[in-house]
Fold each of these.
Amino acid sequence: MVTTRMVLAALVAASGALAGKGVWGDTCSQANNKLDASTWALSTDCSVSTYCDDTGHCVPKGCRQDLYPLGYSNYSFAQLPPMCPQGQFCPDEGDRCLEQSPLGGPCQKDRDDQCQPPPNSKELAGYLNVNGSICLNFTCYYADAQVGQSCVTENTLYTGTNDAGTTFAYIVSRDNCRNGYYCDGTQNQCMKGKNRRAACSGNKECISYNCQPNGTCGKAADEPLHTPAWVYAIVGIAIVALIVGVMTGLWFLHKRSREEHQVMLEQYYNEQIAYRQSIMSMSHAKNSLLSLPQGTTPDAARASLFGNEDSAGYSTAINPVPPNMQREVSAGYSDENSVLMMDRGHGGGLSALGSRFRR
Ligand SMILES: *[C@@H]1O[C@H](CO)[C@@H](O)[C@H](O)[C@H]1NC(C)=O
Ligand SMILES: *[C@@H]1O[C@H](CO)[C@@H](O)[C@H](O)[C@H]1NC(C)=O
Ligand SMILES: *[C@@H]1O[C@H](CO)[C@@H](O)[C@H](O)[C@H]1NC(C)=O
Ligand SMILES: *[C@@H]1O[C@H](CO)[C@@H](O)[C@H](O)[C@H]1NC(C)=O
């Protein structure tokens, strides 16, 4: 697999960079260029950003394979060696861009991108090849073998190391069968890929590329999670129930304050009506006060208002008393006393009224 190899190559490159390999100008030997036995990545005398040139010196690389290559953390993006244009590739050494190889031409280990794509590359392209081409046994092939046709297989043994530090081996088998088919290792013929739960002996036999340890095809690593319909139904009901519950709770919560508010509004309304009526009656009183005949003197006007003479024979118009207080006079109290008595006899609300009439 290309991706596996890339990760392993990156790890090896990182360890190489840390191992103090030759930097720019150091001497090296191309004879030491070899594939690492456990990762199949290229191993040289030079650091990850240099390659061993024909004169036996480490020199900066002339091209890069990855958009963000390893070992260039001190470089700005513009300083990185260039990517190769379409139709060319950057070899593992990274010296310069080369033309892609035709069908049957040479290619480096697992470098499917070094092979020219077939004419029908869109149809043949898949996640186990690059644009329909595949590099097997250092030779370019098209991944176009049909079911029943003979095919080429390349089994590669990789050695990995787990977190505990113990090593383990695993085999990656690649072939030139079309997408959905695999090359049977004993008959060397393309077979149809197996569906979920079918018995298998290797990842490539399964369409999902996942042969589980118990020998059955499992889910693909990138298979999306499918939620059953009843989960949607329950979640939907739960959402509706939650909304209804919140609404009901809020309704009960606000019911009390709503009623208090209603009473307040009613009181306010009654108060306003009362004010209005008071203002209207004051207005009527004013109109009737002003509608005296022309030429009426102030004293005559007062007399006409409060003009009932008492038994002593003088008019109260000299010191007018509103009609609603006149009964106090008839009961024998003086005006002053009647006002004081009102102050004493009634609460605070009326005391303001009393002081208005007090002299
Ligand atoms: C990166 O640059 C710093 C300072 O220029 C230098 O000390 C360091 O060794 C460089 N690291 C690498 C990996 O070249
Ligand atoms: C694969 O095809 C795509 C689309 O045609 C192209 O951009 C890409 O460069 C091709 N890759 C290789 C390695 O030829
Ligand atoms: C791999 O290729 C070499 C020649 O390049 C050939 O001799 C050998 O038989 C091939 N191996 C397989 C498994 O095809
Ligand atoms: C194999 O293992 C998977 C998960 O590890 C399990 O779902 C499946 O039922 C197993 N199949 C058999 C036949 O035991």
Amino acid sequence: MRCPFCSNVDSQVKDSRHTEDGNAIRRRRLCNGCGARFTTFERVQLRELTVVKKNGRRAPFERDKLLASVTIALQKRPVKEEQIERMISAIVRRLESIGSSEVSSEIIGQMVMDSLPHLDSIGYVRYASVYKNFHEVSDFESFIGEEKLSNDKENADDKDDNGSEKA
Ligand SMILES: [Zn+2]
């Protein structure tokens, strides 16, 4: 497993445990090159998925890319790694259950848009700005106006997050 910081392929597993939902094994690794610590997940893949992009190009679905796009939107937000992992796992399960081996990038984006408000409003708006291609401040304003993002909504939506606390 290549170190995300220095690209060294030599790392040690320091800790290995099942994730909360039991669907993956989480490994803490120590890079022998630069000493950085990072986490890897091992999980069952039910189906090979192909993403069809807007321009018609096809690419293999990569969970890590989806995770990266969501992680960027949630940068410095009070959301735990485990919460993001759970959300990504739920999206992947939904994608796998569609029953088609090809999914459009739009459907994936829409699933993220459906899920993110439950985790974090700011991350949601950030993700939407990329997904919906905002160009100017007024795009944000009208989006936020339409969505009526408020604390009330946030609290109401959190109830179904099976008990995990909002940090
Ligand atoms: Zn390294």
